[in-house]
UniProtKB/TrEMBL annotation, chains A, B, C, D:
Name used for this protein in its record: GntR family transcriptional regulator
Keywords annotated in UniProt: DNA-binding, Pyridoxal phosphate, Transcription, Transcription regulation
Superkingdom of the source species: Bacteria
PANTHER family referenced in this protein's UniProt entry, alphabetically: HTH-TYPE TRANSCRIPTIONAL REGULATORY PROTEIN GABR
UniProt source species: Kineococcus halophytocola
Amino acid sequence: MSAPLLELDPTSPVPIYQQIRDRVVEAVAAGALPAGAPLPSVRSLAAGFGINTATVAKAYDRLRAEGLLRTTSKSGSVVARGPGDPPSPPHVLDDWRARLRTLLAEGHAHGVPDVVAVCREVLGDLAPPTREEAS
Amino acid sequence: MSAPLLELDPTSPVPIYQQIRDRVVEAVAAGALPAGAPLPSVRSLAAGFGINTATVAKAYDRLRAEGLLRTTSKSGSVVARGPGDPPSPPHVLDDWRARLRTLLAEGHAHGVPDVVAVCREVLGDLAPPTREEAS
Amino acid sequence: MSAPLLELDPTSPVPIYQQIRDRVVEAVAAGALPAGAPLPSVRSLAAGFGINTATVAKAYDRLRAEGLLRTTSKSGSVVARGPGDPPSPPHVLDDWRARLRTLLAEGHAHGVPDVVAVCREVLGDLAPPTREEAS
Amino acid sequence: MSAPLLELDPTSPVPIYQQIRDRVVEAVAAGALPAGAPLPSVRSLAAGFGINTATVAKAYDRLRAEGLLRTTSKSGSVVARGPGDPPSPPHVLDDWRARLRTLLAEGHAHGVPDVVAVCREVLGDLAPPTREEAS
DNA sequence: GTGGTCTAGACCACG
DNA sequence: GTGGTCTAGACCACA
């Protein structure tokens, strides 16, 4: 795999900590980071990208608040849950639905013929049915 | 129903200009604002909500950049396109897809059982039969 | 009122951002900061205590995550809820109960004769029945 | 029931030494560890859980500082006091009260309807009949 | 003016 | 070694 796991764009208006958070969320959804999988240490990740440790720490902080990450001083940060685990609390999901609503509306307004089809496609391409991983 | 067209929440962490933009996008998607429909002038909208004209102008700017709004000195600002029109240029849709990807991943990672079903539901509830509409 | 609203102890092992958070929580519980009440700006509070703005920002961040604070760029940070409002999500309350359990056990183990009585006292002294405030 | 006496969660963000300390405090409060009861040696406890002896030592240190533990070279570490014994010195109780104040305030601020009732419930469920207790 | 983001670097707690 | 905390200061987004 030459997949770099993380690609950051310092020129993007999206905050770096948010980009890190997004990439991790996607990796978790895709099963690339199953529950229990370790994430790079704050220091190493920061060093690898030439960014500040505080920035990475903030990304991890958010993920922790979302319940996707658990961290102990000893073993560092590990993924706390996967797609198959019981759904997160309603409070979290409601907020997600609201954002989804706006985003789907945007696609529809822009003339995407079948938004649901795109969703299916994006999602399938993201988290293949968790088969044997390959074939 | 006098259909308020726009509801803004000044206490929300979402920037006002973003809220305006989001509401317009949703109205366009729902067909409430068909192509050619006039939007209130920057001045009147700002006055109506007691907000700064610069805030409204910024929202309109974004909508214009997205290709959803067209402004002429003659007819003011009108909706530039509707859900049925040909899709927006690729660079717009690609960006949308990227954001969609992250958002769907978030739902999946948080244990939503059938993300596509939720999308279908949210979308149907947003822009129902679109065209003939009623019966 | 000579009550300084906030007293911080830089020598305490309790992080400063946590101290700020705790004092705000107490003020909210006591009704001294009712829903909608504005908190000092990050800058002014930091300046007033000779601490860094990032430290205050972190405290506010936590309060925001707890649902006690809401902040907009315009009006700054305001209290988002009060004691009388509907209870926070179970997720939050369960965690609180667990911490309460340990803390009450501690008091009991240390020979406090009637822990419940102390709770009643502490609480009454904290949030008087919301009377006319004094008499 | 083989009563595990101690259950540690290495994935918890709560430091291990703190978990040990908390569990012992709760056991003392519940009467499961009456005054004079011996605790496992630092070495054996550490071995039993596969953790560092320094971690256990730190937990015992804290308990000793709190006055709940007494260590002699002869009899090892034994519980120094129980719920029925005379209250611990004021400086210990004052600190406890301060933390209690913050925690109760937190519950109240989060809309718990009757905080005292919850305390009663939690406590009764923690250290039920203690001695002959009821009739 | 407000808060949000990020950097560079230091110190401490945990195990 | 890990992450958590804090400082001093800069820049940007929002209204």
